[in-house]
Amino acid sequence: MSKYIFFSGGVCSSLGKGLAATSLANLLENHGLNVRMVKIDPYLNVDAGTMSPYQHGEVYVTDDGAETDLDLGNYARFTNAPIGKDNSITTGQIYQEVIRKEREGRYLGRTVQIIPHITDEIKRRILTVGRKPDVDVTIIEIGGTVGDIESIPYLEAARQMSSDLGKKNVLYIHLTLIPAVGGGELKTKPTQHSVKELREIGIQPDILICRAPEMLSSDVIRKISLFTNVEREAVIIGYDLKGSIYELPLVFRQQNMDAIVLKKLELEAGELDLSQWEKMVSICSSSPSVIRIGIVGKYIHLPDSYKSITEALVHGGIANNTRVDLIKIDAEDIENWHDEELAAKFADIHGILIPGGFGTRGTLGMIRGAEYARTHAIPCFGICLGMQIMVIEYARNVLGYKDADSTEFRPETKHPVISLLEEQVEITQMGGTMRLGKSASVLVPGTRIHEAYQSDSAEERHRHRYEFANSYRKVLSEAGLRISGFTPDGELVESVEWQDHPWGVGVQFHPEFTSKPVTPHPLFAQFIKASMNHEETRE
Ligand code: GLN
Question: Are 512 and 295 within 8 A, CB to CB?
């Protein structure tokens, strides 16, 4: 039977609860245990698919096509736990299910209430993950902060699980903040209050993770332990990392967090083996070589909007023993720039990446970025919208179709090189109606993409509505835009490449979602390699 570990958060959001949860999972996995992750988002949206990246950061897509919170991407990068629809729970889903059952008459005339009906549905969803055969530990991250109205039913369900399954089978970890006030003095009061609030709900945390600017003195730790009733050894300090986020499991390990968890849950596990992880961390924290990649996108100002892409670039660096510096370029800024201005902007950039996105805004700047990369032999990687931009740019500047466009941006264009599939034209509902999740592509031998995957096929995740228009396949390929990947039925274009260029690859799918620091995605590894070659040849 699986053990269950609940992660809650206090004081404020964005303290890194997801990273903390997945770092513990990483340690347990490296002890040989079989771990599963669940993220709870206490909002009424059914999934993250309809949410703006500005509000919520990137939407992480799973193999089975769930559109989820970006924390699931962190789980995927730190662990090998399989992640799909079951691993993401929202209040929208819980209510949808309870109301559906109520309409079917499944509650047999009873009054349907938050306790027990909503809490039972929450527990049922969590147990669905933990009950799978061979699962040793299920880690559940409850989004939001203790004290929010929205998270109360989840905390209540978490509390009940300890009485349902027994104390040895359920563990509570609470993450709080130790802020520094004027003069740098570190304050424990918000942590004391936050734990008090959790205890009022009936949960005494077993382990406390204190987010702090630096390691705390033993006096401060003792004080926290005293006021919160958490054993001193179970007060773990999540101090600010100087290097990479991938150091966090090592920080927890130093403070014996894995041993404490195993002991409290009475779990037997193998020896911890972090050798592979440590080797990876040392490359991304201290490699002397640095490659600069420019990301030309529109959601540049929120760091989390391109989370999986920025991480996959770091992984591509790890594969090549280099660190990667990301230069964020707001596509809207460069729209009307002259070549000299672009030349100055791109002067010390070794590769350009054009990410996914929706809507017209910024697309002109992305087209400028693609054009500059193509005409100046700079490696260029287009992902989803980025691939569509590479196609539009090629049609405009090589074929001379000045109005070539996607019908997403200009429905009336005379040259719709990117357009909707017929079955998409009639769709009016927004949520969950795109081409979503994992599907196969056939790769053409002798192309860059074939070389990267070393295979005739690849399976990658999709999240888009528009497609390369087949009526333009012939003219564009004759003009030098090589079509290097198709769906197995040959109907849809999955990838394109610039011929006579060091490395220009556009893919309709999202390779960034499957890249891990210890197993970097081959396309990102190859893109960074090409960018390193570009640096050498330029010098
Ligand atoms: N907006 C484009 C489409 O729907 C690209 C989507 C994306 O980049 N994820 O096809």
Answer: no
